[in-house]
Structures are given as structure tokens and as C-alpha cells.
Amino acid sequence: MIILLISIMITLVIVTFAVQNAAAVTVQFFLWTTNVPLVLIIIGSFFLGALIMFLLSITKDLRNKIQHNPIKIKESKNPADTRQNTPVQEERNNHKPDQAGPNQDGQIDKDKNDSEQNKNKS
């Protein structure tokens, strides 16, 4: 009921505005000239401005969503994909200093490997 009363009051204000501004005005735009009631010019300008602001806010919201929620790229299972580590790179990444494993050249350090085996025998 309250919404209906508010709607009726807003409608009365708009109708009063339209009646008081019903005078025809001449509008010129480059070579185009026409006579239009003043109320249509005012209301049309209001809605055009609202539409422009709405479109600008949508683009700003979309830009913010894109910046805060980047699309995550799924890992490719393609063997030719260069983003995946090779077995040697995986071994280097997982290599702990006290374990035998490939050195910088990709060769297994035999001295460390021998010392590890001697420790395991003791």
C-alpha cells in the first residue's frame, strides 16, 4: 500500500512538471531543426544521462571483477608444453642437499651416493 502511495505521488509530480513545461522549444543540432516540448527535452536528457552512467558503472564493475578474479589457466597435459618441468628439473626442484641426486650438470654425484650407501650399511 505504501509503494502504491509513493508511486502516485511521484506520478503527480511528473505530471505537474510536464504541464508547467509544455511549451514548445526549437532544438537545433547541426543542420537538423525541430520543435519539441520542453518537458521531453528535460526528461530525455535525464534518462540519457542515467543510461550513460549505468553503462560506465557496468564497465567499471566488469574491470574490477576481471582484475580481482583472474581466469586460472588449467595445466596442460601436452608433453610439448614448455611450462611443465622435465624429470631432471623435477629432480633438481625436489633435491635435498643431504641426498644423492643430480648435480648442476644433471649427473648423479657418485661420492655422495657412495657415502649414503656406507651410512645405510652401518
TrEMBL record:
Residues 70-122 are annotated as: Disordered. It comes from the Bacteria. Keywords: Cell membrane, Membrane, Transmembrane, Transmembrane helix. Residues 89-98, 107-122 have a biased composition (Basic and acidic residues). The chain crosses the membrane at residues 34-56. One of its GO terms (cellular component) is plasma membrane. Pfam families: LapA_dom. Residues 20-68 form the Lipopolysaccharide assembly protein A domain. This is Lipopolysaccharide assembly protein A domain-containing protein. The lineage of its organism: Bacteria, Bacillati, Bacillota, Clostridia, Eubacteriales.
